[in-house]
Amino acid sequence: MKRAIIGVAVVAGVVQLTATPAQAAPQIDPVKALKAELTAGRAVNVQSTAKVTYTRSLVVTSGLEGTIGFDRRGAAASDVAQTLQYSEDLLRSVKKSKPAEVEALQQGPIRMISTREASYVSGPIVDPALPQGTSWVRYGTGLPPGNLVLNVLEPATLKTLLSHRASWRDGVLKGSIKATKLAAVSPSFASRFGTRSKSGRDGKITYTLWFGQGGLVERLSAKAVLPYGDGSMTVESSTRFSDWGRQVTVLLPLQGDVLDRDQLGDKVPAEVPGIWN
Predict the structure, then answer these.
(1) Is the four-CA dihedral 215, 187, 232, 102 of positive or negative sign?
(2) Dist CA 104 CA 87 (whole Å)
(3) Hey, CA dihedral for 97, 103, 106, 110, is it positive or negative?
């Protein structure tokens, strides 16, 4: 049986990335540079971390590593590994409602191959529920972003971040933006954090972007302070991008190796676990 092929680049496992020094401010428009990469068969390696702080004792952190591939519409497919860790107080709270899920998450990373329409998940979080001969569970969850707060793979988002800069020197740009303004241009931010808080209060995101000589983002650091209950929560995420333009292809799992989440009922999580989802 042939595998389904998506015309974008992806590695079959975790990708190791290295940091690169900041370069001088790009001589070309970064939005144009990004759009030039949005071609079927091209991709970028990502290594990202995220931390969500609800209170001092309720904290969850996560890591994501792999490759995101493109077509002319933008990010089209990805192959990544995710890890998830809870603070002690949050771990005790989550264990009360989902003990098996928490135990599985602590055993190893989640492997996830995604398109815009679905994600295929493997690893300890789903293995016990799968019959012999199957390895993947299909969810109706789309692509994880390269950065939990700011998806700079969206041209409109990158353009907006450039326009809200406070400084741009030696290839390093710093800026800030209100959450409602970011949600208006970024579908990924709006889908995760909403377009407006119920309290009417607005959040704020501060960020730093590092550009290479070709105008592409090589590193991103963002911090969002968002309304949460009567107070606020803090979301921090840092991402490194490397090997822009690499040429590989995403192979979806064989159909015979896959079961839909609905076929397994409550034997697997209702949604893909992870901060990015």
Answers:
(1) negative
(2) 16
(3) negative
